[in-house]
Amino acid sequence: MLDVKEIDVYYGHAKVLHDVSLSVNQGEMTFVIGRNGAGKTTLLKTICGVRAPGKGSITYDGQEIAGVPAEKVARRGIRMVAQDKRVFGSLTVRGNIELAAYAANESVSKSVDKVVSLYPKLKDLLHLKASSLSGGQREILLIGRALVGEPKLLLIDEPTEGLAVVVIEDIFRILGEMKSRVSAVIVEQNLSIVSRLADRVFIMKEGKIEKTISEKAEIANTRELERYL
Amino acid sequence: MIQTLVQGLTIGGILYFVSVGLSLTFGTMKIVNFAHAAVYCLGIYLFITIMPLVGGMHPLALVIAMAAIVPFAYVVERYVIRRLYGESVDYTIIATYAVLLISTNVIKRVWGVQPQPVADPIGKFLDMGDATISVYRLSIVALAFLVFIGLSLFFSRSVVGKIVVAALDDNEGVRRLGLDVNRYFSIVFMLGSALAVLGGILYAPMTAVQPYMGFTILLLGFAVVIVGGMGNLNGTFFAAIGLGLVMAITGRFWSQAAETMVFIVMGIVLIFKPLETYGTSGK
Amino acid sequence: MSVSIEIPDKPGGAPALGGVIQSMGRDRTLLEMAIMTAVFLALWPVIGQHRVTDFMVFCILVLSFDLLYGYMGRLSFGHVLYYGTGGYMFSVFINYATPNPLLGMVVGIVAAMVVAMAVGLIVSRADGAPFSLTNLAFNQIGVFCALSAFAEWTKGDNGLPSTKMQPVWFLDFLQKPVNFWFSLFWLLLVFYFLKRLTRSPYGLLVRSIKEDESRVRFLGYNTFFYKWLTYVISCTLAGLAGVLITLNYTFVSPHAMDPNSNLDIIFASLLGGAGNLYGAIVGGILYQLIKNFLPMWVSDWEAFLGIVLLILVFNFRKGVTGFVVDRLAGRNAASMQPRGGEAR
After folding, report:
1. Contact yes or no for C309 and B264 at CB 8 A
2. Which of C128, C262, C53 is nearest to C270 (CA)?
3. Widest CA span in chain A
4. Which domain holds residue C76?
5. So what's the ipTM on this one?
6. CA proximity to A28, closest of A51, A2, A8, A55
7. pTM of the complete model
């Protein structure tokens, strides 16, 4: 359902992604791993429409989305959770979800219920200002917010980065629950999560996709994956 | 003493009306909008022209002028500011200044350079102790408070308001939800422009209406925004009142220094305020 | 991501400035200076000594502004503050201390420098919009000082004449041609100095700060210091221009610090092409020509200026020099543009 073909992406004069191609089938949960600076975030940002590729194409559900602005891409069912874990700090947790519901034309109560069912502890935090949430709570709020409106493709950038082990397990569980309902491209450094959840793994290095691993056995082998980091 | 206080609050109120638009535009679009002064000035002149057409009814002329300025503001936003989105802030500064130049010239052509007097629409006075306070000025202060409360409610309760607040926190995040932030910024821009015109029309009886009047008030407006924090709506209100009082108090002892004192306060604030929130260097 | 910006390895302290001396090279500077001299000499009989000197001083002003705006990317709306400070301190010195114009000149320049050092500490902490506006605010404060606060000395609105000045050696500034040669001398010197400066590692650093300040900081440089230093140099040169213009007119008034004049400078800089010295000179001359002669034909001067500014901002960002350079480089310029970027 997502087909990225040979895209080049530039920051000013600097070429950051070279001829990158990958594809995601319906219901697949794919992961992108690689060293810092490999271009993983840029890749996600280009797919979701925040950046435009200099050349190449990105097809989603049969339609070309390369260069289409982020808000239009989002309305077609692609959601992204960014690396910086930034929430709408001045709004309450409920307010954050409310905006997502408004944007997706879903009823607020339905959205709130959906997010709370993902992570029941969020129920007690609904009335708090989102800026007061911890890193882990924010990530969960962001993932929940992204799931409002039944998106078909989720792009998540380093969900477990900087989080405590307990919270990582929570996120692992949430991602596991999402697994068949939504297709995903997830950037992760935590290989334990990658090996347990991935249907396919893309390995990025210096702006290129170095290798794609689809074999279950290979993916489950964390030691092998480590070689690529 | 009371006279000075009321004067300060009145000026503060006017500054607030003018600065809200600037603060929002700073905060949402990260730009300096010199054309705000053009909108301000044009609105006042429109008001003066409309007044005799509605039989001198001040409030009616006020509302019509505010409404009439909105299309002009829209054109400026859509065809000048939005075209320079994401580019260096400098270009928007220069481009909006260019709009101000053109509009000032047009105003001079149409209405002439002579100052136009505008009368106090209420013309009544209260006796408070040994001071005579103009009811008109009190009503300005009251209106400022009302608008402040209204805006606070708008931004905390309405969806549009919340979207704008969210965009101030995380512009990209709002876009990635599927919302076209530009459209909301446009709404905010027009709202800010209408409020500036309100401030200008209210101020008109207390000052000389001439084609260059937008310039000074604009500088003061910027000072308010810097002191109060860009995009910080509460801050804008308190900064406006505060600086209004500074002007009134300074004016009492050394009248020409009133404006300069505002800039000095701004300079002092800049020395102490954390500057990470400012600046748009290449981001 | 792998991006490379060439920044010199950070040495200890601030010896990037030492690189200025090392960058002495063989280039066309002498030729360029000769051409400039020829241009101004040619203009002299056409528009008169007084005006030509004006043009040259204005070019110095635009050059100083371009260092700050074109090279370092910071737009100041209060540059004429220093122009006025130079002029006023010169005049005040002439009138109340000694009528020695060279000493007065030193006083004027040093005064501008000192003010720049102080204000620079405040404004260098800001960027973008707050930077522009804070400078404008200080400009206003300066106007206020000249107009009211120190009116006893500056004679407020009436302005301060400096006709009292006495000849020094062979320099009698009351003789008009002396002004021409003196200003030309300083223009060439400033041009040479800035050329060296911008070609040196320091200049590269300044341009890098414009591109991406945080990266430069990560390399270990104290960007605040360089921002401040550039500000001081730029404003001191503006002070020099202020002194020169006062010598030419033997008069200074608060009008010298009129904030609207900042726009003249910005316009000239954009028109000629920001970020290169030739652009500053070309823009300076062109703008002055336009400003002096066009109002004779166009009565709505301000609207005209505004419209041209808009056209410049939207279509001719790089100004005259940029346009010429692109043309000379042929179609290659266009095909080298990187495609893609922020999706709107």
Report:
1. no
2. C262
3. 48
4. 47-334
5. 0.85
6. A2
7. 0.81
